Amino acid sequence: MRQGTSEPTKKRLLQKTLDSLDASRRAPRSFYVLMLLIHVVTSLAVPNISRAQTIVTLFGMQIPMAAFAGVVSSLGNICIIMLTVFCGKLGFFTALIVLLAQFPMLAMNIIRSHAYNSIPGFFTNILTLITISIIYVNMRQAEKYQDRIRNQAVTDSLTGIPNRFACSELVVNLVEQGKKFITVSIDLNNFKSINDSMGFGAGNEALKTVASRWKAIADGGLSDTLDFIARLSGDEFALVIRDYDSEEEILRTIQKYKDALQEKMTVDNCDFYVSASFGYAEYPTDSDKMDTLISYADAAMLEAKRSGNSDRIVRFTPELLKEEHTLEIEKKIRAALEKDGVFFHLQPQFDMNQKLRGFEALARIRDEDGKMISPGEFIPVAEKVGLVDKIDVTVFRKSAAFFGQLLKKTNSDITLSVNVSVRHLMKNDFLQETKDILECNGIPAKNLEVEITESVMIDSAERALRCINSLKDMGVQIAIDDFGTGYSSLSYLNSFPADLLKIDKSFVDKMNDSDSMRQYVAAIISMGHIMGFDVISEGVEKQQQIDTLQSIDCDFIQGFLWGKPLPAEEAEKVAVENAERFK
Ligand code: C2E
Ligand code: MG
Ligand code: MG
């Protein structure tokens, strides 16, 4: 155990933290020496100056040298007062000794040498002594008060252990030193239920017991490492571990804190047990920034909590961030579904003469702060957590309601394309739901297009295929989205009941890079045509791409160049204008 070395270091660090809160900073040692020196020199000089017969000429006036004795003596006394004010206890006692030591000398001077001109100096010394004593007593009182405030600022009032402020001061100091350390995020499990079932008083008692057990380990040097424990808030604690050599040593230390909870607690004659989740991150391996490091330790702790396995002590890994991010997005999706926050934008699709073919409805979610989250982010999470069908159906219903009106208004033969996930497609009521939505909004089946991805075609069971066939029988069009990104075989594609092939943006992007890429896209288009599909290119952003696509016989275009995804009102303007133009 490194108890011998660890304790003083620990105290020094806490003192450093406390000192940093001290408003009245002590003067440096050189100031102390300078003041003392000036005082000694002036004290020795005063008797000689007062006896001197010399006449000094100053500003044309003839002044006897002895007249300066008072000035020099006052300078010496000011230094004595400065020592008391700026050099604390040491300064005061030095001043006291120096002044007291002068009394016998002055008295001897007066009695033996009849140097009556020393009498004012004698009384000045007495007055200075009284002055510095008053200053010192007052300063001590102010310091005591300041000490109390400083201690309160870094101590958690409930448990008496360091608080969040002390902890972050320590971490900042350690980061400045650049030495490795571990920060452990600790959260008590089900603490709320103790508060709820036994009352806040019992909850507070439990927190105090936990803190005192952990303090005993940290301050008593009961682990092999140098530890610092703090309460951050509520049931959140933080442990900072230093002086470790291996991962095993870290885990052994954390285990000690875990084990300290195994003993039962008794509050108001009730016995109960408390457990906690522990997650940790290392400086500088995981992050060299304080805030990031703490949030990483938190992410590890949440993972330990989520796993429900109270024996787990989790070390931060970058994978945890993805998990965190997923959870955050999932929360936003759920909130949006509950609060009607899922809506749609419409991206226009055109033929090569820029005549409107229709719109693709694209899901949009706004979070509680009003910020839009991209579908590229939330659709994969919604798929993972089984919410994508709810998004699909919301977008379908809302966009169909708008589109039905638009068809009537423009009296044009345009198409509404909706993205459908496998999960949605496989639902028992999907067909009936589609029929209802079409009927309810007066949309002919041929004006609806269902977009499925290539992966749906490949991976999905018979049931999905049966469903697609039924849609087709109803007259609904089928589009294969993101074509080229999956691995569908030609023979499978040939038998697939699709109407439209959507060439993925990644091919359109590279199409003009080389002749072979251009030929590749041209081959997809002619192959699509041979199989009886129309072909649309996605993500068209440049005129040059349109020129190429025209030259290789592409049928339709969808991309930012001719139309970005638009809110319903703006999409309506595009539809109305286009209907006018191609009347
Ligand atoms: P997608 O079905 O392939 O939709 C086309 C995506 O490409 C849209 O992104 C659109 O904004 C974007 N895009 C179109 N033209 C351009 C262009 O010229 N440049 C660039 N950079 N991007 C362009 P968005 O809206 O972010 O949607 C991403 C994907 O999310 C969609 O890809 C689709 O797979 C999925 N998604 C969107 N809405 C829904 C929905 O309601 N249900 C389901 N299941 N998936 C959806
Ligand atoms: Mg799509
Ligand atoms: Mg696509």
Verbal overview:
The relative contact order is 0.06. The N terminus is likely disordered. This protein is 57% helix and 17% strand. With 583 residues, it is an alpha/beta fold. The chain contains 22 helices and 18 strands. It is elongated and about 130 Å long. The protein has an eight-stranded mixed barrel with strand order 10-11-13-14-15-16-17-18, surrounded by five helices. Bound molecules: ligand C2E and magnesium ion (2 copies). The site of ligand C2E has 25 residues, from strand 11, helix 12, helix 13 and strand 15.
- In angstroms, what separates the terminal alpha carbons? 90 Å
The major sheet is characterized as:
8 strands, mixed, barrel
**Basic shape:** elongated
Please indicate the percent range of residues in DSSP E strands (runs of 2 or more): 15-25%
Spans of at least 5 consecutive residues whose pLDDT stays below 50 are 1-7
Helix content: 55-70%
Give the integer mean of the pLDDT values. 88
Number of strands: 18
Strand arrangement, largest sheet? 10-11-13-14-15-16-17-18
Number of continuous helical runs: 22
The Cα radius of gyration reads 41 Å
Task: Identify the bound ligands.
Answer: ligand C2E, magnesium ion
Structural class label: alpha/beta
